[in-house]
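Board notes (copied after class):
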Amino acid sequence: MLRITDARTGELVDAAPARRGLTRVEAHPRGLDPTGLRVLLAADLLVRALELGGTPVWALLAAERQPAELRAAADALGIRPFEDDEGAAGLGEAQVLHVVEERGAGPDGVRVAVAPVTWSAPGAPNEADQAALRLALLTHPRSAPVVIDADALARAGDTLARWRSAVADWARGPSRPVPDAVRAELRAAWEEDLDTAGVLGALRAVENDPELADGARFETYAYADRLLGLDLARDLGHPA
């Protein structure tokens, strides 16, 4: 079961205390900036992780400023659409999770805090490779401040290109199930406070494990990508 740190207390709480009960995830970005994008990304990850665990989720955007621009930026970053919270009366949800910027005032309820992002790369965030930006943000715990510079984007872009090419190659072999130990490691990482760095570390280990069949590598990456949202299977069917 997914557990998440409640910023009010610093304690881990169950993200969905009622099994199969509806959970509402509200994203509260203060504005259209890199930290606001990180808030949206954290909310997207919460929704994905809850759905992978079988929990129905209602995802809302609570933004007082630039909601249309935030939605467009979220779409470019591979974030699935949010519903508008205006007039939302609730659907009898068992839990409400508010994804907020660190040290900001937040509504009552469980608060999932996101540390700030400092943008030091050339150009504006919307001019960067959005998949590389997503991966660069996922590389760090959301509680840690992040500096996104040209080197961080280049490293993320190189990793994405390598993994997408590898996934396309692995797909040519016979399919094999995700090894039980690997599946358990992946779920243990993302169910413990959405540890995306741990998920990425597990994928690197799979990439370099000579004992794993290519089909198992492919299925592992496809499975993890349901959380990460990096479109790792994008190059399937392309000429080698």
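Comment from the instructor: The domain at 154-228 is CATH 1.20.120 (Four Helix Bundle (Hemerythrin (Met), subunit A)). The mean pLDDT is 93.
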